[in-house]
Specification:
- With 397 residues, the protein is of the alpha+beta class.
- The protein folds into 2 domains: 120 residues, Rieske [2Fe-2S] iron-sulphur domain (Rieske Iron-sulfur Protein, 3-layer Sandwich), CATH 2.102.10.10; 230 residues, Alpha-Beta Complex (Naphthalene 1,2-dioxygenase Alpha Subunit, Chain A, domain 1).
- 24% of the residues lie in helices and 25% in strands.
- It is built from 12 helices and 21 strands.
- Strands 3-12-11-6-5-4-7 form a 7-stranded antiparallel sheet.
- A hairpin with a 2-residue loop joins β15 and β16.
- The longest helix is centred in the last third of the chain and has 16 residues.
- The radius of gyration is 23 Å and the shape is globular.
- The termini are close together.
- The relative contact order is 0.15.
Amino acid sequence: MGNKMHVLPVEAYTSKQWFDLEMRTLFSTTWQFAGLVEDIQEPGDYISVQAGLNNIFIVKGRDYRLRAFHNMCRHRGTQLLRAVGKGQKAITCPYHDWTYSLEGELLSVPKKEREFPDLCEGKLKDCGLNLHEASVDIFKGMLFVHPDKDAPNIMDFFGEVAPCLGPHKVEELVEYREKGPEPFYTKEIKANWKIVVENYIDHYHLAHLHAGTLNMYDHEKAEFGWKGPHYWFYEPLIPDYLADVDNAAQFPLIESVPRERIGAYVPWLFPNIGITEGEAQWNTFHAIPLAADRTLVVIRTKVANKSEWEFTKQYAKSSANKLWQRYGGQGKYEGDSNDPMASGDFMAEDVFACEQQQKSLYSPRFSVGARAVRGEYAIVRFQEEVKKWMVAHGAEI
């Protein structure tokens, strides 16, 4: 097998064969994050998402129910809908114009009698060519899909970890969107998706790689563990930052978080969606596997429902606050701000670290040295969960 990354072989991070196996036995068998509930508000609104080997779309029907279907025409398998859309009256295949209702029923086939004389004797309703159903459900304001029509109950999957998440009332928050072509943070990382996850759940690196960017949190007092296949994490703010957090925070504080429970809640929901829940932001961190050595990260941010003027005032207070200047926004090294290690941007620091690790995996001299028993405990457990899930769903590894 060659060298190992604790539990998994290096090939699990570099091989197309392993990547394909994950698509079939992991991402095609788990609940997959699709978006936020506000993405689909009116009948005919839809979004699509790749769930392992399956492209699935969620659509709101005329009865205001959410439904999920496999995104393929029953005629020749052509993709029906693009990534996102509003107000569809029906779902029409762009290839041959087969048309389906918002509830997935086949409505019309052009030239049916002439081209398809045996198509259920003209009775489309009973011909068995309605769209293949998938499953959709909601967890903490997030939409999830599962490729199976009779998927396991979503609370059976996430229920154990739910009490360990932050007290944030997500439905009271509003999405913060950047100006420009990309409304939220999107970054393609030249690393395997598991490298990205392991960086996210690595407690050991917080006080080191992010010494100048995330030092407002008390890393020594971090608490973390596992509930089922899911990771939970919490660490408080350091006392002097907490004492002046009203002025130090960059955004207005989220009012649903009691003062005594302010801190960083950073769970990882198996297999590939993280949530970062802080004093002033609530984020989804979606790690989308693209290839054995490529991952697309999409971060969506929700904040307190305040006016633009309130945000402007808060940012001005934070920028002038000595605590923020002391504990956040400082690069690990001095130098050009284009250097990730001098940027003062913790995401740039993480991306750099992940990509450097990926490069090293191809060296014949690569090996994992000593392991931090507490700080890197989560990495080993995550790899065990990946392996266990894949084996349970048919992988021979």
